[in-house]
Structure formats: C-alpha cells, structure tokens
Design a protein that fits this description.
The structure holds two protein chains of two kinds.
Chain A: H1 2-11, E1 21-26, H2 33-49, E2 55-62, H3 67-76, E3 88-92, E4 111-113, H4 120-135, E5 141-146, H5 149-155, H6 158-170, E6 174-182, H7 188-197, E7 200-205, H8 218-227, E8 230-238, E9 243-253, E10 258-262, H9 285-293, H10 317-333
Parallel strand pairs in A: 1-6, 1-7, 2-3, 2-5, 3-4, 5-6
Antiparallel strand pairs in A: 7-8, 8-9, 9-10
Chain B: E1 26-28, E2 34-36, H1 41-46, E3 51-52, E4 56-60, H2 67-81, E5 86-90, H3 96-99, E6 103-105, H4 118-121, H5 136-147, E7 157-162, H6 165-168, E8 173-177, H7 185-196, E9 209-213, H8 227-242, E10 246-252, H9 259-268, E11 271-279, H10 283-288, E12 295-303, E13 319-325, E14 329-334, H11 346-351
Parallel strand pairs in B: 4-10, 4-11, 5-8, 5-9, 9-10
Antiparallel strand pairs in B: 1-2, 2-3, 6-7, 11-12, 12-13, 13-14
Helix pairs in contact in B: 7-8, 8-9
The chains are: A alpha/beta, B alpha/beta.
Family (chain A): Belongs to the ELP5 family.
Organism (chain A): Hibiscus sabdariffa
Biased composition (Acidic residues) (chain A): 346-363
Amino acid sequence: MAKSICTALREGALEGELAPALTIKDSIASPFGLQVFDHVLSQLFSSILAGKSPSQGLILVSFSRSPSFYLELLKNKGISVASSDKRIQILDCYNDPLGWKDQLVEISSTVTVFREVKHMDKLFNSIIELGRGLVGGGKIRFSIAIDLVDEMLRRASVSSVARLLSNLRSHEQISSIFWLLHSDLHKARVTAVLEYLSSMVASLEPSHQLANGQRGDLENFALIEHNSKKGKFHVRFKKRNGRVRVMSEEVHMEQAGVNFTPLSSEGAINQGLVPKVQFNLQLSEKERIDKANVVLPFEHQGDNGKPLQIYDGRRSLVDSKQERAVAVEKEESDSQRGEIIYYRDSDDEMPDSDEDPDDDLDI
Amino acid sequence: MAAAKTRSSSFSGNLSSAASSLGPGLKCGPNGTVLLSSGIPDLDKILGGGFPLGSLVMVMEDAEAPHHMLLLRNFMSQGLVHSQPLLYASPARDPRGFLGTLPSPAASKDDKSRGPEPDQLQEKGLRIAWQYKKYFGENQLNFDGQRDGKHKYSNEFNLRNPLERHFINGQRVDCFSIQDSPDLSILQDRCTTFLSQLPRNDGSISCAGRIAIQSFCAPQCVYSNMEWEMLSFIRSLKNMVQSSNSVAIITFPPSLLSPSFCKRWQHMADTLLSVKAIQDDDKELAQLLTGYQDMIGFLNVHKVARINTQVPVILEATTFSIKLQKRRYLILECLNQAPVDGSSGTSYGTSGSCSSSSKTGNLDF
C-alpha cells in the first residue's frame, strides 16, 4: 500500500534503530518505477513541509533526471520550492557526474553539483555535508531520496554501494531513505543485496504475464498495451517484531501521476474459510438434485407411507410386498408403543441356533 | 571401570577421568565430547545437550527477519555469564554497541511456567490431552532447574533486560568490525590469537571460548565478492576450532551467495541451522498451525554435529517455531497442527512459503 510506505518513511527511525529504507524496483514489463518514485517523493516532501515528520529536510540525489525536472515536478504538485529552500537540497549527479565539463551554469541555490560519482565515500561525505548544511548538526534528522541506484552501480562496485547505503541507514541524523532500482538491469545477486539492505521492498509487476516472454506476438500486443497503463504494486514490509507484511495494490498510470487502488477480486487471496481438505465438501446443484432423488434402502419410506419395494434378492417380490405391507400396517397401529420390527438377514436360519456357520468349511 | 556403565552405542569411547573437572558452563556429552550451552535451553534439548567443543555452527539468515540476532545474543550472553572468553566480529561500524543489547539471565523467581497452571492440573475427571506432547516437557523442566547450584549449565535469558555491565567489562571480550577489512587476513589473525589461548590438551578444560561472526558475507564488506577466499577462511577456522576448546558460530545470508558457494558453506558446518521469517496475517498458515499469532519465525535444524561417532542424529522434527514468551524468553516449539484442517502433506508445501521467491517452505512434522 503506497500509503503505508509513505507513513513509514515519514515516521522515520526510532532511537537506536536503523533508518527505514525503501527499495522501489521495476522492470521493463512494468516500467512505472520513476513515476512511483516521484509520487513517494512528493508525498514525503509535503509531509516534511507540513511538519508532520521528525525529519526536517530532504536531500535528493539525482542521477537519472536533471534537477530542474524535480523542481518543476514539485511546483506542479503545488509545493513551492522557493519558500521551501531551506528544506530541500538536490545533489546533482546528472549534469556532470565524472567532472568532464569545465564549468556549469548554476541552476539554483538548491542544487549542488557533484562530480565524482565513482567514489562512494566522497558521495557519502557530500550527502552528509549537504544534510548538515540544511538542518544543522546535532540530533536533527533529514531524509534522503536516491533517484536511481543503477547509475551508482554502473560506476562503483556492489560492495561500495552497499556500504554507502548501510552507512547512511546507520547514521544518527538520517530519518529515512529510499531509492529506485531497475531490477532487470542487474544480476539477481545485486537485487538481493539491495533487498537485504532495505526494510521495505516495493515491486512493480505487470498485471498480466506475457506468454513465454515473447513480445512480438500479435496476442501479446494487447497485453503489452494493457501493462503499459496498469500494473500490480507489491510491498513487503519487514516489521520490527520480525514478521513480514505483504500487501498488494493495483497501480494505474495517469496524466497527473500514479494512482493506487485496492486489488480487484480477480486476484483475491482469500479463498473463504473452508479448510483445505482432500475431498470436496460442497455439492454442486446437480449433485444436490441427484442426492434428493436417491432411493435409500430403508423401510417405511416412500410417498404417503406406502411401502417402497426394494428387492433384496432373497425373496420373491410378491412375498416381500405382502410381508412389508403387514409390517407397515402393524406399525401404524402401534405407533404409540414404539416397536422395533426386525427382519432377519436370512430366513433359512433358525432363531438362536447353536450351529457354528464355520463348521462346513473344510480346513 | 567403564564397562560397568551403560553405553549408548558400541562405538562410544571411554570417558576419561579428566572429564570430571570441567569449568563452569560445560558438561560432558556423548562419545567423549564436552558440550557448552547455546543460551537457549530449548535448542540445547533439540541438539542433544548443546554445542560440542570444537564444532562449527552455521546459521543461515533470512534477509527479511533479524532472528539470527536473537540466537547470537543468547549465545554470547551465555558465554559472558559463564566468564567464557568471547570474540565477536560484525559488519557494523561499532560492534561494541551490540553488546549493549545482550540479554541478562532471567531471575529464578519469575521462572516461566509452561502449559496450564498447577491448579488446573488437579482437575478430576477425564481430560483429553490434545497435542499431548506439549505436556511432556513440564516434568523435566522442573527437575533440571533444581539440580545445579550456583552455575547453571544453561540459562533462560530475558530479552527485555540488558546484561549487567560487569559481565562485559573486565572480560576477555574482543569485538571488531569486518566492514573495512580489504581481505580476511585481519579476521584470520584475530581468530588465531584468540584460539591460541584455548588449546586442547588431554587435561581438564578450565574454560572454553566462543567465537561469533555475524553476517559473514554481508554486502557492505569489501571482501564480500571474494567467494573462494571466504570459503578458505571458513575451512581454516573450522580446523583451528577443532583443535581448541571453543565453539564458533557464523551467520550468513544465503541469498547473497551464489548457489554453489551456498552449498559449500553448508557442507562446512558441523551444526547447520536456518531461520525463516513468517508472514504477518497469513490466513492459511493461521488455519494450519496453532499458536500462529505468537510465532515470530521458524527455526530449521538441518544438521547436528556428530563428533567421535558414525551414528547420525535423526530428529523427531526439524522445524520449530520461534516464540517470545511474555515477550522476553525465547522458546522453540514443535509445530502443532490446528484441529480443523484434515489435510495431509500436500497442502503444507504450498502454504508454508513466506519468502518472495517461489521456493516453498518445508514444514516437517
């Protein structure tokens, strides 16, 4: 649930705990990662501005988009950056990451250019410095948003990126941190590392899986188009008590951004409260009708008390009819007294005979 | 004369007379081994008494839950309570800070009571003991508690109370961070110096040492992509530990290793455990197991150390649920099936999974 993520990021870390960290991961099949990132960013920043969070500022490390894009984005969301100069700082790793350009035109006071993305420790220092400059030193906290971790992984080793992220998480002035990852650009181990380092993992998946991963088929085009507007948003929270909370939502791409709605019933997880057993306890309609039609081999059954003729294979039909008719009448007259009417299994057998039926076996 | 004693198997060795003079926190185990406690009485019971000296214990972590920390905390606290030297290595910047979270032993007064209160047990009449095996442990528990004098072999630890300072200071407690070491030589040297203090002789064992290495292949460590080096470190540690009076415990997240190395590491272990996270609000699991609400995770015992013997250990159950009783005491319980569900083995395979990958959990009853 996007709301719970934003709440968790907003609340930040408790004393002595690592800061909550969110990984947003997407793939080519469901490429809304950047839009979800923007959504979370604007939500978090507006709560910081509104004073609802212990975090006093936000540092945005932008790799994949120009800082002016973010300033525009925040303006469009109705958050005026000019007045919130003291609350957000953007570390620009987009314009000149490797220090090739001699000089850059400064965009605004909120943007600081960073030129050494190959060196993770320098990046760490810059982030902390920028944060301290924003909120001051001491115990005041700030949040961090990292645009695209893929760009960091392009230039530095996995262990140095992991070290940067874990040091940021354990820094006492960081309230919360989140980042975006395109999971199909990396080996599985890299995604596993980033999931290991985060306390919440939000993944975007297509609502319909494409058959065999082939994207050229005609039938698949409709699915691809469908997937380009909608997707599934799964979140795994690592709670403090050691349990994992799994939640899912649907995400829709719209002009204004992304929209989250609860999952439609086609993907329902709850299957009712009937316990799983190996045999089927429910009856279908046809089965119910058939069941009502089954003639049970009990006596005194049938319409209006008329005796039912059940051929038991031992006597002729006529005899049995008569005998049963007698019995039924007798029972009807003696209904008050509650008699037990018993028919012996075999009419050859004498009552209470001492004969051992096994005697005639030749053993 | 040893012949007068009953032997558990014809391959067991003679217990030497030196075994009688053991230091605190040590006891004799089967086949001439000496055991020390893991800090969790339930785990000791499952493993047949505790960890044997000279063995390497490996714990496979779950990236989604910090349960391995609970195991480590109890292990380290138990060692400190018995004044056993401790070496702790972790990828955190400040490993000494972790010592502040170690639990203190529970006072014998507020001993936890398992099962129903004594008054209820005096009920006359027929009682149906649903899941009767739960009640077996009670009698044994009371008996064990009375035996020891000052030094109990194994303590219950209260996770709410931190360990008193005097246990940590003035002890041979060595902590260091493995995050910035470019390679494993520093860790190797520290372990060598630590273990050289605890050589194994045929004489009496005055004290045993404990080594705890947390999250060995954590991604923030520089050496974490040097897989062969890590494996050879584990092998050399195992050899050093075998010829000394100590137990080493290494925890690692298997999802961060390549599958072949993961298997190799598992084979290195004498005792192999794994912890798994449990999903919150899982209705299927709640229907399948009783006591689901109190569980915080699962513990699987994959391998139990067998030293000086060829006879394998076959456990009654290998999956246990981890619970925090009264939110303080770590207990391990066998999984008990809920009464309503009448399904057989096939349904567990699908309902036990709680990780994001498609592998299904193994619930072994």
